[in-house]
Amino acid sequence: MAHTYSPKQFGRLIGKSVATLQRWDREDILTAHRSPTNRRYYTHDQYSAYIGVVAKPKGRVVLYARVSTRNQRPDLLNQVAALEQYCQQHGIIPSETIQDIGSGLNYHRKGFNQLFEDIEVGHVRATHCRP
User: Fold this and answer.
1) Could you say which of 3.40.50.2300, 3.40.50.1390, 3.90.1300.10, 3.40.190.290 is the CATH number of the domain covering 62-120?
2) Is the dihedral of CA 7, 9, 14, 17 positive or negative?
């Protein structure tokens, strides 16, 4: 379990008062977590983010593009180019690009199936974005 801090402890860590933390919580500046008894608490991840330390996400970044038929190959290349441009603009470094040509109506797509297998075992982090 990740380390947690009471508002008083967290305030001491970042040099702010409990009143400031409460106000920030109300104003969605730094939202506190809530316990089952509705008590505020903060996590070590929040502390790291506050001081500017960003944890590296786990798993490879894989780009996935698909078209239905071979006649759409130029569209596939356009999709890949758009994904790569998005990554470049957002400072994302992909490890791999998977391209499939196959219907979206079934699961007879080798790259798609391998990607989901890699997600299930934790080798790839699951997220999506559309440029």
Assistant:
1) 3.40.50.1390
2) positive
For every one of its 131 residues, what pLDDT tens digit does the chain have, with 9 covering 90 and above?
A: 468 999 999 999 999 999 999 999 999 999 999 999 999 999 988 888 888 876 555 678 889 899 999 999 999 999 999 999 988 887 888 889 999 998 777 777 888 888 888 887 777 776 665 55
Which residue is listed with tokens 């070590």? 44
Rounded (10°) angle between helices 18-26 and 7-14 = 100
Predicted TM-score (pTM) of the model is 0.51
